[in-house]
Amino acid sequence: MSGVVSGRSNIYNASARAKARKASLIDQTRMRQLLQLGPESIGASISELGYRNEMDIYATRMSGADAVEAALFHNLDNDLAEVLHFCQGPLKSIVSVYVERFAYEKAKTVLRAVNGGCSFELIESQILPSENPMNASWLDIVRNVETVHDAAAAMEGTPWGRELSKLSDSDATLEQMEDALDRQYYDYALKISKGKDSNIHLMKYIRTEIDHRNIINQFRELRQNISPERRSQMVIHGGRIQKSIMSQASQATSQDAIIDSLRRSNSFDDEGFDDAIQESKNNESLDPIATLLKHKRHAMLKRFSYLNPVSAFPVIYYIERKILEIQNLRLLVRGKAIGLSSDLLEGHMDF
């Protein structure tokens, strides 16, 4: 974690560079053209759209969707490192919040892989490919561990490792470890959002993101029959929705009851939820709710980026759009590989 960086920010330069990068992303028209290609042609087309270097790296030992997916994540790591590099001063601290969340995700990936009994060889070859130099430190962590607790202990010295060490119960579950990482990440994000070169819009966005994480967790935990007490304990604090309201939502025994509880807060935007809840029930999936929340965040971030053209927002907005491009391409490649129709894939893409 970069921590709070002193000195002057280069907001004008960084904003301009981020906007130029955003302009080079794959647009909706080109993405829809990719949807019409067969599985054998997609990899070559993606390579021509800015991913050639990484595709060449993995083509030597992987093929098909596996090679493309590894190349996409490698490219994302490289891109995020470059973005963080061209930011200076307090701006770098703000942007690091959005770059370093992937370190937390990789920490979770390591914990899940070890907990699932994956061998080091499998982790090195498939989950965190050794061709990506940014995976080296993670591979060092898991090289000689056998249990999820060994893996957590091996992360000592990192912000996520220090948070995991606070779990006094040696029998802490994987779920409890992941909850601890989420809380630590958002504590850090809120701290940075109060610092220099930040603004009220950034604080609002982060707090909204916390709300959305809590909301989807409530629906997921309800489906898993997790007790109300445990659901209340898992709430991440710092969101815009009051603690008392989230506590009430934790006691709800149905999806409709969760929404009814949330509607008692003026900070809860319920637009679209009735349809999402109904679709969720029909499909027996939480995807419609998660998609609705994601669209709300993207719309907010886009609006704040235009309202604050010389700020951290254009950089943050670019990062989110880059991530979205990777997600869409991954869905496209994996979906085509298993024979899903173009219409079905397009319906699940986010533009």
- SS-based structural class? mainly alpha
Main beta sheet:
none
Distance between the termini: 30 Å
What percentage of residues falls in helices of 4 or more residues? Answer: over 70%
What does this protein look like?
By secondary structure, this protein is mainly α. It has a domain at 200-307. 71% of the residues lie in helices and 0% in strands. The protein contains 19 helices and no strands. The protein has helices spanning 11-23, 28-35, 39-58, 64-85, 89-99, 101-115, 120-127, 136-142, 148-154, 159-165, 174-193, 200-223, 228-233, 243-250, 255-262, 273-283, 287-307, 313-337, 342-348. α4 (64-85) packs antiparallel against α5. The longest helix is centred in the C-terminal third of the chain and has 25 residues, at 313-337. The protein is globular, with a radius of gyration of 21 Å. The mean pLDDT is 91.
Helices and strands in order, then pairings?
Elements: H1 11-23, H2 28-35, H3 39-58, H4 64-85, H5 89-99, H6 101-115, H7 120-127, H8 136-142, H9 148-154, H10 159-165, H11 174-193, H12 200-223, H13 228-233, H14 243-250, H15 255-262, H16 273-283, H17 287-307, H18 313-337, H19 342-348
Helix pairs in contact: 1-18, 3-4, 3-18, 4-5, 4-18, 6-9, 6-11, 10-11, 11-12, 12-17, 14-15, 16-17, 17-18, 18-19
